[in-house]
Design brief:
By secondary structure, the protein is of the alpha+beta class. The chain has 2 helices and 5 strands, in the order E-H-E-E-H-E-E. A hairpin with a 5-residue loop joins strand 2 and strand 3.
Length: about 90
């Protein structure tokens, strides 16, 4: 039996750009074996897609609530998302 796979898109609001949030997120997601991506948005938020075993996705969201030391996360909105077609986790640069 395989673990339940969960895929979601997260929009992270707060002081999350210019504080190494994307690099930190990429490292954390890879350590959890997740697929997806992370990018900065023009409105100052960070957007990410996390896909993998439900427990690891939930753990990643919990980690994002704190983020790297210089970040100040105000809120995270999540939305259902299709699993990425490519394996692995990467940063998308605008």
């Amino acid at each position: 039996m395989t673990a339940d796979i969960k895929s979601l898109r997260a929009v992270i609001v707060g002081r999350v750009q210019g504080v190494w949030f994307r690099g930190w997120t990429e490292k954390q997601a890879r350590e959890r074996g997740l697929n997806g991506w992370v990018r900065n948005c023009a409105d100052g938020t960070v957007e990410a897609v996390f896909s993998g075993p439900a427990r690891q996705v939930d753990d990643m969201l919990e980690a994002c609530r704190k983020g790297p030391p210089a970040a100040r996360v105000e809120s995270i909105e999540t939305f259902p998302e299709d699993a990425p077609s490519e394996p692995g986790f990467s940063q998308i640069r605008r």
